[in-house]
Specification:
Number of strands: 9
Structural class: alpha+beta
Largest sheet: 5 strands, antiparallel
Shape: globular
């Protein structure tokens, strides 16, 4: 009787461990996560504007349809990324999101006003920028990249539907590009 009880509890513990490992591993094997949906939007270092509420909800149920969005996929393996533009909205926020869909950095217009000037860089690139101040504007906000690939997401509040096109137009004029090329250092 004791032997059967011990086997039962051992099987219960092994089953619980397998269950917990499966739950924690599932996000790493998901193919329909936010990262894969952003990959389908378009090429890296390009601003993609989503102002249609239905398109925003199709991308992610977490995106509020009262906002217009600008998404820029980033790759800082070769150079930092500069995201710059004027956001014509009473409120906007920017998130740096890593490959796993986790927000690593966030800022709002309360910090920088209507002009967005952000540099996403690795620690090594930040050291290089501190040695070469001519490479980056002194008003730029520098974000530390936790991974080589991720994306920057700008949310701009659309207070009135009449303003949606104006805000989308402003977002479409934002620039997202590598801060330097190989020729910069030659």
């Amino acid at each position: 009787m004791i032997r059967e009880t011990l086997i039962f509890f051992a099987a219960l513990v092994v089953g619980a461990i397998i269950h917990i490992v499966t739950i924690f591993a599932l996000p790493y094997f998901a193919e329909n996560d936010i990262w894969n949906r952003v990959l389908q939007i378009g090429p890296v270092h390009t601003v993609h504007v989503i102002s249609n509420p239905k398109q925003a909800l199709d991308l992610s149920g977490d995106l509020d349809p009262t906002f217009a969005f600008a998404i820029c996929r980033t790759d800082v393996s070769q150079a930092p990324v500069l995201f710059k533009g004027r956001i014509p909205s009473d409120f906007w926020s920017l998130d740096y999101v890593d490959r796993n869909g986790r927000s690593q950095f966030s800022l709002t217009n309360q910090i920088s006003g209507s002009t967005l000037n952000v540099v996403l860089a690795t620690k090594g690139q930040q050291r290089l920028m501190s040695e070469r101040p001519d490479l980056v504007d002194e008003t730029a906000i520098v974000i530390s990249a936790t991974e080589d690939k991720g994306f920057l997401l700008v949310r701009a509040l659309v207070a009135s539907e009449r303003d949606r096109d104006m805000i989308a137009n402003g977002l479409s004029h934002a620039a997202c590009s590598p801060l330097w090329t190989e020729e910069t250092f030659q």
